[in-house]
Amino acid sequence: MPNLRSRAKKKVVVEDNKENDEYVAKKAKFEKVVAKKSKIVLPKVIKVDSECPSLGFVVYQENGLIYSALLNQTNIAQNNNKFYLLQVLESEKSPKQYNLWYRWGRVGYKGQTKLEALTLDRAKSEFEAKYHAKTSNKFGEKFEKRPGKYDLIPVDYSRQDEEERRDDIEDEAVPCTLDPKVKSVIDLISDLKAMEKHLKRLNFDTNRTPLGCITKEQIKIGYKLLSQIEKKINTKTFATEFHALVSDYYTKIPHCFGMAQPPSLREFEDIKDELSLLEALVQTEVTVENTKKQIEKVNPSDRNYQRLNCGLKPLAKSVKAYKTIEKYLKNTHGPTHKGYKMKLKNVFELEKEGGFRSDIDNHQLLWHGSRLLNWFGILLKGLQIAPPEAPITGHMFGKGIYFADCASKSANYCDAKHGETGFLLLSQVALGTSQELKTAKYEASKMPEGISSTKGIGQMEPDSKKCEFLKIDGIKVKVPLGKIIEKENPDDYDLMYNEYIVYAREQVKLRYLVEIEFEANEE
After folding, report:
1. In the listed set 146, 161, 176, which residue is the last one of a domain according to the structure?
2. Of the four listed, 59, 193, 214, 324, which is most buried by Cβ atoms within 10 Å?
3. Are residues 281 and 315 located together in one domain of the fold?
């Protein structure tokens, strides 16, 4: 449940002499909400499945149990990707009536339905029997996944309750105090509908698992399962155990593939795609948690901006930093990235507190790209290193924070379409002495003494003779903005473009957020 103590702030501020009926009514509503903070255990009302025709009903609750269960089962070998939903429904008005609602089928489709009018005891009994038949678990007890049975998808009902509480206090129109350019960014990176659209691109099932409702434990299990799948790929062991792992992964992290068979996850590229999804889910959870509406008289954009605590100051086009970044973006669009153009919209200076290893030398301003739904979390918490339970796939030089000196290499990670806005981050990276590698080395994070970073050398890189420097907080920072040129003997290098990797967050300082518009290149 959310901590309601943090929500107990006055929404309504009025003068003492404004004791009119409207104020009294509003004040009573507020006090009612605040009074709930020490009493709420379960949400008052759980909404019925949207496909159910029963009007005037809610999900039945009894002694802390919510009689609603969303089940999921994926079996790669049999091309199964199915769900089963069951709910006991109670009429809101007396005399009380009770229904038992079932819906089941392939993920992504409405499926089949069944609605029965029963007594309460009969509805509960049949609900519990069906739950046990599908999961081999007793309803109300700690859930354990059984082989060949459905898994229970955890649902955070407190999210729904939070929405109900928001309606208890009138949402007054409060003007935004932000610069319009800043407001536009804040609204874009905290737009939950846009996040849902991006998650659907990654085949995540947002219908069964709405934004913010997947648990941290589910995501952690997802990482662990991908690591086990990765080991099977390494040994080319694609037998029954492999299929079971893939099925368990899809069961734990709900996907929607329509009638198509779920990918078998036999290739490392498949693992990379799933890692992108899990990262997106982590960042989405951060965004949902930190954009909750509070019982306070603050514009939502202002509130979200304050929570980020990252500065986000628009740069004038006339200042040196803007001109340097504009040149850096233009010159380092790789010749192999011809499918799109990038139009610079705005540059924002960032001011993020945190320890920074300024004692390590060789500071460079380097690019980092990411999907739109990741940016709220990045600006809030900084760039993160993959967790221990995550597989090594996708990390050619070990688990660290990856950067590029080629803008379009980083832009490819934005996953933006024609006409969409994306963001690139420019960070001041303390590289120190780098170990230079021509090929992948998954244990690169185990560096020799005196080495502070890894440089994966690419076939093409910015012309080193054309670099410039910016002085930031008294430190001379290299900006490798020369035009992209090809090295001699390019076949000696596995990478197309350079990559820079550090293995400590203290070697990274977020400096500029670059807003760009993607345009299809029709040439």
Report:
1. 161
2. 214
3. no
Secondary structure, 3-state, 116-157:
EEECHHHHHHHHHHHHHHHHCCCCCCCCCCCCCCCEECCCCH
Write out the catalytic residue numbers. 499
Statement to judge: residues 324 and 221 lie in one domain = no
By the 10 Å C-beta count (0-12 exposed, 13-18 middle, 19+ buried), 225 is classed as: buried
Do 313 and 243 lie in one domain? The reply is no
Maximum distance among all Cα pairs of the chain, rounded to whole angstroms: 84
What residue type is assigned to position 83 of the chain?
F
| pLDDT digits (tens), the chain, 523 positions | 344 333 333 333 333 344 445 434 443 443 443 334 333 345 567 889 989 998 899 999 998 899 999 999 988 878 888 999 999 999 999 999 999 999 999 887 889 999 999 999 999 999 999 999 999 999 999 999 998 899 998 876 665 555 444 444 444 468 999 999 999 999 999 998 888 888 888 888 777 676 667 788 889 999 999 999 999 999 998 888 999 999 999 988 888 887 778 888 999 999 999 999 999 899 888 888 888 766 567 889 999 999 999 999 999 999 999 999 999 999 999 999 999 999 999 999 999 888 898 899 999 999 999 999 999 999 999 999 999 899 888 799 999 999 999 999 999 999 998 999 999 999 999 999 999 999 999 999 999 999 999 999 999 999 999 999 999 999 999 999 999 999 999 999 999 999 999 999 999 999 999 999 999 987 6
**354 and 432 share a domain?**
yes
Which pTM was predicted?
A: 0.76
**Count: domains in the chain:** 3
Give the CATH number for residue 269. Answer: 1.20.142.10
